Amino acid sequence: MTSPKPRITIGIPVYNGEKFLPECLECLAGQTSREFTVLIMDNASTDRTAEIARDFAARDPRFKLLRQKQNVGARQNFTDVLESSDTEYFAWRAYDDLCDANWIETLAGVLDRNPWASLAAGKVVGVKLDGRMEVNSAGPPASPPQTPAEIRALALSIVPSWYYGLYRREEIRRVYARCRELFGYAWSLDILVVLAFILNRALAGTDATSFRYRATDFSQSYLRPNHYADSWAMWRAFYRAATALLHESRLTPSEQCALRLTMFRIANQRSEKPRRIIRGALGAWLLGRDGRVRSGPLLRVPASR
Known about the structure:
Layout (H helix, E strand, L loop, with lengths): L7 E7 L6 H9 L6 E7 L6 H11 L3 E5 L6 H10 L5 E4 L5 E2 L3 H11 L5 E9 L5 E5 L10 H9 L9 E3 H14 L6 H11 L3 E12 L3 H6 L4 H21 L4 H6 L1 H11 L3 H14 L18
Parallel strand pairs: 1-2, 1-4, 2-3, 6-9
Antiparallel strand pairs: 4-8, 5-9, 6-7, 6-8
Helix pairs in contact: 6-7, 7-9, 9-11, 9-12
């Protein structure tokens, strides 16, 4: 007797994740739902990541290891694990993140009960490496925002980890491809993806389950540009992408008009802050500095499709 096809795929794009991957996999194995499969997309790791995933898959047939022949970058690895799925629902899971045992079951129930929703997310808890809680955010509203004011409030309060919620697979394939087409950076791409669902009134939330991420600031160290020219280029690209998503949404022309300034505010909050860009440029032009917009090592991060 063959097992029924799972309804849900959890995709784990990972590179050199041996430190936290075992705990992430054990967390998923302990979910109350059994209607899922896990695809571990190893981005040509040089540590024990592949060995850990292979051993886990040997013990639990719901887990499968896929390996890139060479490192393709984080954005492409996220894309490839999404394209490798073939189930009704899909979620990305970072290799160092965790969740409550009822996370899959609860979010699948949210999508089942709300055909208007294509993304479901719960509460978000940020945890530092020493175990201290950093952030505790409520889930999105259970019903879609109706007025431009409600959409604006939700868009300006986006929690980046809603990106790691549960999607209808065909819809996230479409949205993710469009966001990648509009915006060539890895930094802040998660905000644009969630924004697209908010603008289409397709985000549903619940406080009945929690997602937990480790607050390491690791991605900021290599994904976020630190030179004023790169930061300015990313700000412009983000603003243009957000505006394009607004114009392509199902909102009426009058609703879109009411939210145009909101796209500017989101760009200022979620991509780069103009005052930092101006300060970096003035420092380079007037004082002969290196153009950094923040403290730390100088990073030149180009756009990467």
